[in-house]
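U., I forgot to send this yesterday:
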Amino acid sequence: MNRPFWTICITHMFIEVFYLTQVALIPVYVREFQLTLLQASLVATVPGILQLVLNVPLGFLVDRFSTKHFLFICMLMEGVSALALSQTSNFWILVAGVSIMRASSPIYHISGLSQISRIVKPESMSRSIGYHNTLGSLGAAVGTLSLSIILSTVGWRWLYLSWAFPILVWGLLVLRSPQLGSMTVSKPVERKVSTSRLGAVISSGFLVFLAVIALREAGIISILTYMTTYLVTLKDLSPAMASLIFAAGPLMGTLASLAGGYIGGAFGSKKALSFTLLGCAITLTLLAVSSQIYLLALIYILYTGASYMAYVPMSTMVAEITPPEKKGLGFSAYFFTEIFVTAFTPTPAAAFISLTGIGYIIPFSILFLAASFVLLQFIYRHK
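Result:
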């Protein structure tokens, strides 16, 4: 693992700084902008749709152009949108700013992970993905932790202002990296028409894998989007305390991502992913029947650890299933599925909550996690 690898990982850390802040701030948005829960869900839905639109062409582009230019673009988008969000007082500008910010995520993930899959040896892939995801978890943890501090002092807008400048500076440093500019060009003989490129990636095993991802993501996003709302509404916590518990989860995720790399290497990616799905379902069940704040925090930390650990075997399975010259398309299909579900789950989940109550979001999520676990057990029959 060399300097380009760690450059990509640090970029991942900056990309994930704001990953959880938008959903953590939903109760604040509802109060400040006088919104319904369905209206506030647009903060999660609209960015997901934009990510979905960008995901398709990116799969074809990242195999042809320099990684450093993609990483610079996503840092520029995130930094500039953070500056805009720090000054806005209009909800629709807020939605637009968050959408542009989150659009940087597929640009990073498809280009960054494709590059990692090229420069890392197969026997080290699971461990390397673990390191990569650990830096991302650290970024999400630091972002939500800083939100919990800023939210109780100077106000949420200062979160975006304080992070904008370090992100922009790092983007300039990435742009000056010569190592990332020389290792992403595909061989000319491998440039085929799009139908053959897609056909080489979408096997029956890969389709089953994408279905597993879709079901898991539906369960994870449902609880992730409304966790602070659940804690504030049903468990009677303050928004600042709910955000603090929310921040503690990704801190555990840093260790879980690192452990996921070693567990995947020892037991295989399928078993590692199965463990995480069971862990999420069990901890969510315990969360539903708990009431003490310390117990809620502990269980949520364990749940988040299992949730974050899953990204290591999932990314490893993409690298294992897709051909070497089609990594960009493979990761594009993977993230397309993930982003599609992320984009369209929050609003139906909000409608479900409106009809049944916020307490039912946990069994709603567990149902999808259980279905994902069952389908995963059949995946190697189609490999």
